[in-house]
Every structure is written in C-alpha cells, then in structure tokens.
Amino acid sequence: MSRSPYDTGPQLPSLPEEILAYYERGGELTRLRQGAGRLEFWRTQDLLRRLLPEAPARVLDVGGGTGIHAEWLAEDGYEVEVVDPVPLHVERSGRLPGVTARLGDARALPADTAAYDVVLVLGPLYHLPERADRIRALAEARRAVRPGGVVVAATINRFAGLNDTLMQGNYFIPERRERTDAVSAHGRHRYSSADPHFTTAYFADPADVPGEFAEAGLAPDGQYGVEGVAWLMGGVEEWLDDPERREAVLAATRRIESEPTLLGASGHVLTVGRRPGEELEGRLG
User: Do residues 275 and 145 touch, judged by C-beta distance below 8 A?
Assistant: First the structure.
C-alpha cells in the first residue's frame, strides 16, 4: 500500500503554538463527559452508530483527542486507531483497551492508502481556517478509506459562537461582541490572549461543506445537526441528568437532525461522504 504523498517521514505535526497550548491544558478529558457537553457526545455517538458499517471494521479516528469516541467504538467491536497532533491526547487515547494511537497531522496522515473502512474527522476541520487545508485534510481521509468507505467530518457552525455568547451573557461585553460579530461574518476565529475561551478556529457555513467534500473527491451523503436547538435551551444540563428526559431530548433532536431550515442552528454538524467505488474511480481517473 502507498503512503501519503505529503508524508515526508517521522516528524512532529505542524500545529500552531496557540492551538497546541489550548489542548495541552487537558480540557478534552472532561469537555464531553459532563454538563451540557454530554449532549454533543451522546448525539455524536447516536449518529455514528447509525452511519457506520457494522463492527468489526477498521476505523481511523483523525483528531480523536483523548479517545472519547475511540473508547466506545472499541468496546462496540471496532478496530480503532487514533491520529492526533497533541502529545497529551495521543498518550491518553493510547491507554484505552483496543485502541492504538500515534501523532499525526490530518493533512498528511501516517496511514496506508485504502486501509480503513471508516475515517472520522471529528475535530481537525475546526482548526483549519484556510480552505485549501480543509480540502487537503478531506483528501487525505479519502485516500486512507477504502473505495466505498465512509468519511464523517464535524464542523462548528458559523453562528455557534454568536448563539453561545448570547446564551452565556458574554455577548453584552463589548469586546466579546465585536469579536463574535466578526466571526459570524467570515468564520475565522483568531486567537487572542485577552480572550482565552477558545483558540484559532474556523466556523463553517454548513452549506459550504458538501462542496469541500466533493472537491476532495468524496461523494457527499448527508448532513446532520448534532445538538439541534436543544443546546440553546435553559435547563438542558438538568434534562440530561434525568434518564427519561435525556431520551426525550435525544429523540426530539433526532427528529430535526437533517431539517435544512434548522441545520445551522446546531452547534456542530456532521457531514458524511463516501469514497467512490473502484469502478467509478476508474472512469473518473
């Protein structure tokens, strides 16, 4: 099997210093395991269990963090490998039973061609403000997945920051409002030491993502709002604490997950694509 044309041998991933510093704080250890973040976790899990082929299958979890999804995927019977540019994440995810982990950049994956049934890209597109880099990461996912295989990528929605700062009350702080309005206009969140709540990032218009998939050689196959509108409602943390209400929230969000008029209200969107089969690739090539 061939290697990535971008793979020049063992090297540390080229990650901007502010992004590495943000994730080395260790926030990903708990972000999706407590509070309102559990909605994102449970909904992502729900979607992947419906979208992925049955286990056993080989899954490459690109930007898999501390293994929040790799852990349950391995428990479900999948063969999971995590690639992440943050040493802390690789160390933590590599401890999980049934999971292997290595350092790597989504734009130059340390992975053989057509070696996986599924490639997950559930974080890298957040931190690639340049369209060319996002296309490159998606093209690498396409290369690593087998013909007919599934690629699932997550994006942060264009107005997620605006909605979140309104909900938290931070929008009424003039400096935060100015920065938030700028991101709403162009999607680029620039790191500022005066505003350490997040790091360099890109907030995507969900309507643009299928085109990026197509440019990378993937056939788009659906989009799904992860949190829907539930994440913006007061009381969601308490609802998630109650098993009966939690199931009602998840079911309600599932009902609207692909409604076009509501897709952009979600905090995150999953976009699904497939690598064309060998016969189609031959015609295209």
Answer: yes
Using the Cα atoms of residue 255, residue 259, residue 262 and residue 264 in order, give the sign of their dihedral: positive
Q: Which residue has the tokens 């957040």?
A: 126
Instruction: Determine the Cα–Cα distance for residues 72 and 76; give it in Å rounded to an integer.
Output: 6
Residue 195: strand pairing partners: 192
Model confidence pLDDT, tens digit, residues 136-161: 999 999 999 999 999 999 999 999 99
Say what the pTM is.
0.91
Q: How far is CA 116 from CA 127, 144, 237, 247, 279, in A?
A: 24, 6, 36, 32, 18
Distance CA 160, CA 266 (A): 7
What does the H/E/C string look like for 188-254?
Answer: EECCECCECCCCCEEEECCCCHHHHHHHCCCEEEEEEECCCCHHHCCCHHHHHHCHHHHHHHHHHHH
| DSSP, residue by residue, 105-159 | BTTB-S--TT-EEEEEESSGGGG--SHHHHHHHHHHHHHHEEEEEEEEEEEEETT
Residue 278 pLDDT class (50, 70, 90 cuts):
low
**Residue 85: DSSP 8-state:** S
Angle subtended at Cα 203 by Cα 182 and Cα 29, rounded to the nearest 5 degrees = 120
Give 1's pLDDT tier (boundaries 50, 70, 90): very low
Q: Give pLDDT tens digits for 219-248.
A: 999 999 999 999 999 899 999 999 999 999
- φ/ψ of 50, rounded to 5, equals -90, -25
